[in-house]
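Record type: monomer structure entry
Structure origin: computed from sequence
Chain ID: A
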Amino acid sequence: MSYRLLLSRDHDGRRLDRTLRSIWPAVPLSAIMRSLRKGEVRLDSVRVREPGTRVRAGQELYVPWEGPEERSFERRGTVPVLWRGDAALVVNKPANLLVQPDVKDGDSVITRVWSMVGGREAGFAPAAVHRLDRNTTGALVVALRGDALRGLERLFKERRVVKRYLAIVVGRSREAGEIDAPLLKDAEANTVRVASEGKRALTRYRRLAGDDGMSLVAIDLLTGRTHQARVHMAHAGFPILGDRKYGCFEANRSRGEVRRPLLHAFELGFPEGLDGPLAELSGRTFRAPLPEEMQAVAVRRGWDVSVLGN
């Protein structure tokens, strides 16, 4: 089973791995990488093994999968939509849902969005612009057109999009703080740690509510490293409640009803002056309501979260 197609202008200049993900959102990343390593993907009849290879409009792409229009997704549900435009939409990602499908489970934000919007348009499938961990909830932007995807990827790369998170952390945090600590990723263990040889990572936070046992904090990520908020808050002495990988074992055990890290992508803010396919996003800010389990903790502890609009 294989498929050939001519790449359109929507994909011109993009990385090969991202092009493959956008055309075949139901194919797990691990399967894509395996096919690249084995030389099963070709551009103009030439085997390509490097995921970062830049593709060009008009090139013939060969893959060892069925055509994208032949794939169908089992409809397993929807995702709440915070806003929808012509070129993109912003969804409120629930917990325990991957952004992209994996080998074990084809269910994901992208496959649900595909079903919701009716599949591809002009050879382009809905594509996530950024990532959230499986158990992180909140605002996520999905491109519906290739020109919007390129523009959004550029905005995120240039750090022009405000990404604000809310988290419930263990202990009474400082009123505000900045964490400038490099992070090193261990791909095999799927963990991240603070290490001098890591990549620079910068996080700012401020306390919105709290007591001696816990705090609700707003977190701004000025860089976009894997697990950045979770590792940095633990490094600062205020681990996120429910985080079994980087958190406080005793606090998590005493709160057995908390099944995930209480981390929520609360706000996405786009800059003024955007044009073209991104004009509809210019100057707009989107907020995802605080999830129920975080609201429940706030209510039990008597915190006022009315400022968050919930």
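Annotation 1: The chain has three domains: 3-70, 81-158, 162-266+290-308.
Annotation 2: The first strand starts at residue 3 and ends at 6.
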